[in-house]
Amino acid sequence: MTRVVFLLVPGLHLLDLAGPAQVFGTAADAGLPYRLAYVADHPEPGDPQETAPPHPAVPAPAPVAVHTAQGVPLQAPAAWPALTAGDIVLVPGWRWGGRETHAPPVSAHTARRLAGHHAAGGTVASVCAGAFALAHAGLLDGRRCTTHHEIQDALARRHPRATVVRDVLYVTDGRVITSAGIASGIDLALHLVASRHGPGAAARIARTMVVYARRNGDEPQASALLRHRAHVSDAVHRAQDLIDARYARPLPLHTLAAEAGVSERTLTRRFTAATGLTPLRYQQELRLEHAEHLIGQGATTDTAARAVGFTDARMLRRLRART
């Protein structure tokens, strides 16, 4: 079971929190092993602060009231749950006042918890201004990262040891993942699900949430999962779900038609009308896209071809040449 802990800070944006929480909650409803938890940023009594804390100290272990940027009050425990290396800590962003301050974005105690979880092998992530909390914990030193486009310059100025990547959805650097503004937290969470459970699982969750499945900002943002899902044919979506989950395996047309609940001829006609591709061509696009990713990570063409289901690397070479 993977615990996903959301750190609540004063002035947080609701969508920064609700978007990723909805992804992992939907994943849990679908049977994936996720459990959500929430903790409020809170300095321990006597915890030293280099500068004034961003909000008044609340004695632990009483629950802490957190007021959001949109005015909805939230409440979360101050005590952190026990974490393992497989768990995720995610820091949503908060309202940025339009000017830089010298106060740390989170308490020294919280910064130590973030750094300690990462040092123990855990994953930390942020949405929007949450990147400043990771930077305060020292987790962005020497790493690539991103944040909302309006505060990228501020992040670069305040933390010059971080390499700020501009105009991308999110950036993964080891077990530190940072995303851009507001809604990009959904993309980040879908990426985390895809990296742990495969693109098919992420595509199903995205479809349940009625959002697009997106990929890393360093890769083509308009992936095959995105380009060919802008239609309303349930039969075609069902066939695509099966292809997404088993793209590396042989998938006869009759198997796809049975999954879609229509005849082979009807599926071919509807699939082509909805996506502009035949089911086989769609599967080939997925294979090609995954093969390109593997090659970009250092795999040979032969190795990548076998990994994505091609029995002959010549087919992969022909598809790459064609595109």
Automatic annotation (TrEMBL):
Keywords: Transcription, Transcription regulation. Pfam families: DJ-1_PfpI, HTH_18. Residues 41-61 are annotated as: Disordered. PANTHER family: ARAC-FAMILY TRANSCRIPTIONAL REGULATOR, HTH-TYPE TRANSCRIPTIONAL REGULATOR RV1931C. GO terms for molecular function: DNA-binding transcription factor activity; sequence-specific DNA binding. It comes from Actinomadura citrea. Residues 51-61 have a biased composition (Pro residues). This is Transcriptional regulator GlxA family with amidase domain. Residues 237-323 form the HTH araC/xylS-type domain.
